[in-house]
Design a protein that fits this description.
This protein has 207 residues and is of the alpha+beta class. The protein folds into two domains: 72 residues, no CATH class; 116 residues, TATA-Binding Protein. The longest helix has 23 residues. The strands form two sheets. It has a five-stranded antiparallel beta sheet, with helices on one face. It has a five-stranded antiparallel beta sheet with strand order 6-10-9-8-7. Strand 9 and strand 10 form a beta hairpin. Helix 4 packs parallel to helix 6. Helix content is 41%, strand content 23%. The radius of gyration is 17 Å and the shape is globular.
Length: 207
């Protein structure tokens, strides 16, 4: 997805608001794991940041600030599509998500390689950056973090440290239910957003 300011998202935003309005908002918020409020607003967390959706005013704030348009679209797509299905406890790679074939190579380049570079550059700093977005470390591989992107979407970020014979490797795995909550392109963009947050934290630490 192109950076904010280089693309007009108005048509996509209008379509996303209309799609959400066509649902039963309170019930749909429940299926998404969000919190419907008596005033008609909806609250949910995106990458550890509290977001507030105001359907009547077509406004979305995250962390108390107006969200970028492309992030608004992700949130609206998640709310509108959420099926409420429970986790299937079957892990799949991005390439195994239905319809992911065309996105697999860019996903590896933009997401997996960025994660490898972050950990190779400073493993402890990268681990701390993941903790800052609310990730929970678990014992697997060299480093492994569970990141909650949306209330019903957790991803497992895996890093294997390389040596003289083998380069470092990385992977992201999803629960098979992920396709019940977002289209595959949005899943990729969410992971790019996660990587962007990690890069931002690491840049701030290096100043």
């Amino acid at each position: 997805m192109m950076p904010e300011g280089k693309r007009d998202y108005s048509a996509a935003l209008d379509h996303a608001w209309r799609a959400l309005a066509s649902t039963g908002l309170a019930a749909q918020a429940g299926r998404a794991g969000a919190e419907p409020r008596p005033d008609g607003k909806i609250q949910l967390d995106f990458l550890g940041v509290r977001c507030e959706i105001n359907p009547a005013a077509r406004q979305i704030t995250c962390g108390g600030k107006d969200a970028p348009d492309f992030r608004k679209i992700l949130i609206l797509h998640y709310l509108a599509k959420a099926a409420g299905t429970p986790a299937r406890n079957v892990e799949i790679s991005f390439a195994q998500i239905p319809g992911a074939t065309a996105y697999a190579a860019p996903f590896r380049a933009r997401v997996i390689h960025a994660i490898i570079r972050a950990f190779d550059g400073d493993e402890n700093a990268a681990a701390n950056a993941f903790r800052q977005i609310g990730a929970v470390e678990t014992k697997f591989a060299t480093r492994c973090f569970i990141v909650r992107i949306f209330p019903r979407i957790d991803v497992k970020v895996i890093y294997w440290r390389g040596d003289e014979e083998m380069p470092s490797e990385g992977q992201i795995v999803f629960d098979r239910s992920v396709a019940d909550y977002l289209p595959v392109e949005d899943i990729a963009v969410c992971c790019e957003e996660m990587v962007g947050e990690i890069k931002s934290i690491l840049r701030q630490k290096s100043r």
